[in-house]
Automatic annotation (TrEMBL):
The chain crosses the membrane at residues 12-34. Monomer. Homodimer; disulfide-linked. This is Bactericidal permeability-increasing protein. The N- and C-terminal barrels adopt an identical fold despite having only 13% of conserved residues. The N-terminal region may be exposed to the interior of the granule, whereas the C-terminal portion may be embedded in the membrane. During phagocytosis and degranulation, proteases may be released and activated and cleave BPI at the junction of the N- and C-terminal portions of the molecule, providing controlled release of the N-terminal antibacterial fragment when bacteria are ingested. The gene is Bpi_1. One of its GO terms (cellular component) is extracellular space. It comes from Fregata magnificens (Magnificent frigatebird).
Length: 179
């Protein structure tokens, strides 16, 4: 049990326990809601890694040779329920995900390109600025990708969270501005 601070002035106090966080993670995972399909047209043109075989040739030259400059899709999903722990200054989580990439052929057929299983430890520190929910996320550990540099993947994960996670949190958790 944690003692809540005494309020000396009007304030909003939000307390989340690990039970609540893990129950929500269980419910979302069980309902199949922890997946996202990302297509090449969803990423900004300035994003450093486009979902095209030409860009992915950095990781797999054979992909570019076999399917020259074709669009791709990335299917992200949880392999098992995320595990969350709450601390006074942050929310820590272990995510068990998979990323399956597909080449999209001109006839709209999807050809499997590769599958990555990624286990990641992340720390999130939520913030409220004005009437918007925000935060910072850092990757504290990664298993399953010995060939990729963690810093590059961390940058991509942060951008993905900024592009998809924070807007989703703002629309789902805070659909109306905080008065």
């Amino acid at each position: 049990p944690t003692a809540l601070p005494m309020a000396h002035e009007p304030m909003l106090l939000l307390a989340v326990t690990e039970f609540v966080a893990n129950s929500a993670a269980f419910a979302y995972f069980t309902a199949g809601a922890l997946h996202r399909n990302i297509s090449s047209n969803m990423l900004p043109r300035r994003f450093p890694l486009q979902l095209r075989t030409k860009s992915m040739g950095v990781f797999s030259p054979q992909l570019q040779e076999r399917y020259p400059d074709q669009p791709m899709e990335l299917h992200l999903s949880a392999r098992q329920q995320p595990m969350l722990s709450c601390h006074p200054d942050a929310l820590h989580g272990t995510l068990f995900g998979s990323a399956q990439a597909f080449v999209v052929l001109p006839n709209a057929t999807r050809v499997p390109a590769f599958l990555l299983n990624i286990d990641a430890n992340v720390t999130g520190k939520p913030t409220i600025t004005g009437n918007r929910l925000g935060g910072t996320v850092s990757l504290t550990g990664l298993r399953g990708l010995p060939v990729l540099q963690v810093k590059r993947l961390e940058t991509m994960l942060k951008f993905g969270l900024w592009l998809f996670g924070v807007p989703w949190a703002n629309s789902e958790c805070c659909p109306h501005p905080v008065p």
